[in-house]
Amino acid sequence: MASTGMQIFGFVLALLGIMGAMVATVLPNWKVSADVGSNIITAISQMQGLWMDCTWYSTGMFSCTLKYSVLSLPAYLQTARTTMVLCCVTAAMGLCLASLGLKCTRWGGGRRAKRHAAIASGGCFVAAGFLCLVPASWFTNEVITNFLDSNVPESNKFEPGGAVYVAFVSAGFLLESARKTPGYGAADAGEERSPRETQRSPPRSIRKNHGTAETPGFWIKQIRKCGSV
Question: pTM for the complete prediction?
Answer without folding.
Answer: 0.73
